[in-house]
Predict the 3D structure of the following.
Amino acid sequence: MGNGQQRAWEQTMRHEARALLCSVLSVWLDLSMAGEAAAADFTSGEITRRLFEAGDGAHLDFSSRDLTNLDLSGLDFKTARLTSAKLFGTDLTGANLANVNLDGAALDRAVLTRARFDGASLKRVSLLRPTIYSALASADALPEEAPSFAGADLSGARVFGRLNYASFKGANLEGATLAPYNPSGFIEHIFRTELQGADFSGANLSGTDLTHAFLRFANFSGASLQGAVLRNADLSRADLRGADLTGADVTEADLDGALLTGAKGLDALVGLDQARNRAKEVE
C-alpha cells in the first residue's frame, strides 16, 4: 500500500470511528431520555388533571417527585409545591409557576420558553443548560421567548446556560453561581452563561459568582452587587447606574461603554486596575 493509499485508509478509518462514536452517543442519549421518562412518577395527563381539578387555594404537593421529561407546557401550577422535584428535560413552555415553591428542584435541561417564575422560591435550584430559544444562534435569540424570574428567590442557585433577555428584576440571587460548570457530563456548546440584555434592575446579587458571564446590555440599575465575582465578565454597554459595587471583583472584566453613573463603591472595586476597556466606561 502506497503512502497516499495509507493516508486515505487512515482518514476513512477516522471518519468511520467518529461516525460510530456519534451513533453510540445518540443511542445512549435516547436510552437515557427514555429511562428518565419511564421513571416519572406521573404522566403528563395525570399532572394536568390534578392541576385542573385543584381549587385556587389548593396546595398540590409534588415535592421530591420525579417529573422528568414530561410535557407540562402551558400549565398553571397555581400554588403547588415542587420542592426537590426532578424536572430534568421537562417541557415547561409557557407554564405559570409564579409563587410556586421549587426550592432544591432540578431543572437541568428543562424547556423554559416563555415560562414564568415570578415570585417563585427557587433556593438552591439547579438550572443547567435549559432550552429557551427556537433559534440555535445566540444572536438570533428572541426576547419574547425568554422566561421571567422577576421577584423570585434564587439564592444559592446554580445556573448555567443561555438566558439572554430573561427578567430577574427585583430577584434575589445572593450567593448564586452562574459561572461555567460542567462536571455533570453534559455535552456543552457554550462556555459561559449568556445573559445579554437580561434585566437585573433592583436585584440582589450580593456574593453572586458571575465569572465569564456574558452581560452585554444587561440592566443592573439599582442592583446590589456587593462582593459579586465578575472576573472576565463581559459588561460592555451594561447599565450599572445606581448599582452598589462595593467589594465586587472586576478583574479582566470588559467595561467597554458600561454605564456607571451614580454607582456606589467604585473606590472599593477589586481588580479595577486589571479591567479591560476601563477608559471607555461612562461615569
Observations:
- The two ends are 70 Å apart (CA to CA).
- Residues 8-37 have pLDDT under 50 and may be disordered.
